[in-house]
Amino acid sequence: MDTFTELTADRFPLIRDIGRNRTDNLYTHPDRILDYHVFLYVAEGSMQVIEEGTSYVVKEKEYLFLNKNQHHWGLPETPAETSWYWIHFNTLSDDRKDYNAYTPLPELEYYYPDHYEYRVALPKYGVAPIGTEQQFLSMIKEMQEPSIHKMTRISLNVFQFFLDLNAAAKDGPAGAAHRLTERVMAILAANLEQPFDAAHLQAQLNMNYSYISSSFKKSTGQTIVEAHTKLRLSKAIELMRSSSLNIAEISEQLGYQNPFYFSRVFKKVFGEPPSSFMRQFYRL
């Protein structure tokens, strides 16, 4: 995936403005350098634009990100009756280079200390998701109406839209790896009450375990055993919330024969022992 930029999960983009345009004549994109990013979506026709010497032709239902502080311009090659939408936005400067490039796995529903410390890669160019134009019309309408926290709400809506772009990009060449990851997670989720069994996983998928393990690590940034452990601990939290079981009983139900070992694993992942975590669910 040719990446335009990376957002962090704990910071949303700051929107300057959103708009729509249509040309009745042959159009030439302005020659300029901006101090903000541009997201361009073509609803009808096609848009020609050059960024730092690289030429793009954005066709109908496609999008392109243009980087701030880079020279972009156009030739008189955008045909009449082309219509397009744009988002002008900035991202907060971020020196947190240690944030990882992998999103938390979908089956892990509970916060853990580094949950939001990851980056979201946005594709430079691609096909927009279905409903993009409707989203733009809604956001433009919101821009035109006075409301409390208007710009923050619009920024959050755009962040959600950018997350959808990131998700849609995974349907491309990396799609097979992501589908395998989903199958692995489904099998792990169905076997939470027992220790991890590589042979069982291999048999269920009818694939070599070394290949499964390598693909999973490349796709998620963590090992299958780490994912299985987090799934089991998420189940433990669910039991804390929905049952009257004590720590030892929860440990035993999830296949941990030693509750002290279970407590050590829990603290390593969530930053506190299960007894402390459990207190927040007590009702006075």
Automatic annotation (TrEMBL):
Keywords of this entry: DNA-binding, Transcription, Transcription regulation
A Pfam short name: AraC_binding
SMART domains, per the entry: HTH_ARAC
Gene3D superfamilies: Homeodomain-like
Domain HTH araC/xylS-type, first and last residues per copy: 182-280
SUPFAM superfamilies referenced in this protein's UniProt entry, alphabetically: Homeodomain-like, Regulatory protein AraC
Matches recorded under PANTHER family: ARAC-FAMILY TRANSCRIPTIONAL REGULATOR (PTHR43280), HTH-TYPE TRANSCRIPTIONAL REGULATOR EXSA (PTHR43280:SF2)
Protein name: AraC family transcriptional regulator
